[in-house]
Write a sequence for this structure.
């Protein structure tokens, strides 16, 4: 990767290796690893990169997608990204229409990158100028999660780039050039994420419905129960003088998918 108008400070930053994570559907993992691990071994030797694929049960929080870790020099990381992107499109095309859709965009045309929090700010740029330029020049759509979004992993942001394959690759190359200049970029290399309090009850792509229920209404004393029956015997059920609680009313529908 060539960084235009580089200064001595920029040249120093390009000597370091870039750490990047890529989200992939589970069906893509096998084609990246290859039979007996041949494909991933060949990719490592070609790019001089560290490439690791998470296990089946190691998925990114609030998604059903596995993680690919790539640690490579700036001049060869795009070769690894292009290889993974090609495998993603090929594998999902072979699924014969069973590819998942999120927000109306086919997953086949999306690349989801995980970058450091500081790098995400530089990709967006002042008043969104940098990301707007990347979108217009490459005819792609770029979406980054915000710090205040529900379920964001601390220190990490997800960047979704959608469009045609070559255009997406060019956009990613420009984004990685920005990441290479970020001296404060720190991305954890672990593929295992801690069990956050709400993850156990989570069914992918959104918070539990219980979050959207109204708080219980206070109990209301309705006075003593009526008496009835014969011979002074009360045949009505026992009643403690309080109105029974009703199920919490639903407040609208669940939010759209997060990632």
């Amino acid at each position: 990767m060539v960084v235009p108008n580089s200064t001595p400070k920029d040249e120093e930053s390009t000597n370091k290796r870039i750490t990047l994570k890529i989200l992939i559907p589970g069906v893509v993992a096998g084609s990246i690893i290859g039979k007996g691990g041949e494909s991933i071994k060949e990719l490592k030797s070609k790019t001089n990169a560290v490439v690791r694929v998470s296990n089946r049960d190691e998925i990114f929080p609030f998604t059903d997608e596995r993680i690919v870790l790539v640690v490579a020099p700036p001049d060869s990381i795009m070769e690894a990204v292009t290889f993974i992107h090609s495998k993603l499109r090929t594998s999902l095309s072979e699924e014969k229409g069973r590819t998942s859709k999120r927000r109306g965009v086919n997953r086949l045309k999306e690349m989801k990158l995980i970058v450091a929090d500081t790098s995400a700010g530089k990709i967006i740029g002042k008043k969104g100028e940098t990301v707007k330029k990347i979108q217009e020049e490459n005819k792609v759509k770029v979406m980054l999660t915000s710090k205040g979004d529900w379920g964001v992993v601390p220190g990490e942001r997800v960047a979704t780039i959608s469009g045609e394959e070559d255009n997406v690759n060019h956009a990613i190359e420009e984004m990685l050039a920005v990441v290479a200049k970020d001296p404060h970029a720190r991305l954890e290399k672990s593929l295992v994420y801690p069990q956050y309090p709400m993850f156990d009850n989570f069914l992918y792509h959104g918070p539990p419905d219980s979050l959207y229920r109204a708080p219980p209404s206070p109990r209301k004393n309705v006075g003593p129960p009526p008496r009835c029956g014969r011979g002074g015997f009360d045949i009505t059920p026992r009643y403690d003088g309080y109105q029974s609680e009703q199920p919490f009313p639903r407040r609208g529908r669940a939010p759209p998918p997060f990632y």
Observations:
- The mean pLDDT is 78.
- The first strand starts at residue 18 and ends at 24.
- Residues 77-93 form the longest helix (17 residues).
